[in-house]
Amino acid sequence: MEPELITTFTHLGLSDKEAKVYLALTETGTATVAKIGQQASINRVTTYDILEKLKQKGLVSYFTKKKIRYFTATNPEIVLEEFEKRTNNLRLSLPKLKRLTGETSHPRVRYFEGLEGIKAIYADTLTSKTEILNFSNSSEIRKQWAKYDDEYVTKRAKKNIHLRGICPKDKAGEVVHSEDEKYYRKMRLVPSHQFDFTNEINIYDDKVSIISFKEELIGMIIESHEIASSQRALFDMCWQFTNTGEDLPSAETPAQAPETHPIERKKENAIKESLLKPIPADIPKKEEVPAIVEEAQQPPSLF
């Protein structure tokens, strides 16, 4: 039994003997108390007491066959996930702990840095009691967190937390969109050359989380019913006017003049023709035929 493994589990809160029993059971697989005690070099009575404590901590399980108990160690990956959850809970509680010591006033905005901080933000969205509304760039998060789909998206889907999202129509966005049904979400794609946003916004419960992936990984969770409601309304407006990827009107596109009505166009053409009509070379002098000259100086009446 490797001493490093024993040290790892004692740092997680187990006693030395608890760590030895858990590792012995992991090594032997499903086994009786006697076999586990032998593997851990601990007497049978003490081993049984330790197994009961580990069972209470969720680290072992058992079944009875012919009045004999057989114990099985919890998968180490599940143990890791449980301790990560506890770490995330502690991280999320840190502002409250600081407030107890007088370091901060009651916060409504929590800030996070680094990949572990970003993971804590995503972990918070898994507590959502409402649908998650999402503006995102499908490729940015996966560049930073290679196992994002396995460690977050799959968990969200298993928890039946539905997501509606808007993201750029690029290669990554199309791949994500193709798996909507599998991951319990509905994405809409927008032209990437018009809406190439690189950060991410999640709206859920009374919270809005904002994550930036450029230059440095930073994020925040804003807790406010009013802000969340406003952001939710803005998302719904964007959702209604978002299609499946066709170009949307741009503010830089010059407005086209409205088409002239046929009758108005006929009047305009008549005026142009009268103005451009050549003046006859033998036009009478003004004093001889003043009425004709006056008519030539004004465009003909169209009414």
Q: How far apart, in Å, are the first and last alpha carbons?
A: 108 Å
Radius of gyration: 37 Å
CATH topology of the domain at 108-241: Endonuclease, Chain A
| Secondary structure category | alpha+beta
Order of helices and strands: HHHHEEHEHEHHEHEEEEHHH
Word description of this protein:
This protein has 303 residues and is α+β, with helices and mostly antiparallel strands. Among the domains are: 3-74, Arc Repressor Mutant, subunit A (Orthogonal Bundle), CATH 1.10.10.10; 108-241, Endonuclease, Chain A. Helix content is 48%, strand content 17%. It has twelve helices and nine strands. It has helices spanning 3-11, 16-28, 33-40, 44-56, 76-100, 114-125, 138-144, 148-158, 171-178, 225-241, 262-276, 290-297; strands at 60-65, 68-73, 109-113, 132-135, 163-169, 185-191, 200-204, 207-212, 218-223. It has a seven-stranded mixed β-sheet, with helices on both faces. Strands 1-2 form a two-stranded antiparallel ribbon. α9 (171-178) links the parallel β5 and β6. α2 packs across α4 and α5 crosses α6 (114-125). It is elongated and about 120 Å long. The protein starts with a helix and ends in a 6-residue tail after the last helix. 20% of the residues are buried. Mean pLDDT is 80; it is low at 244-248, 250-255, 288-297 and 299-303.
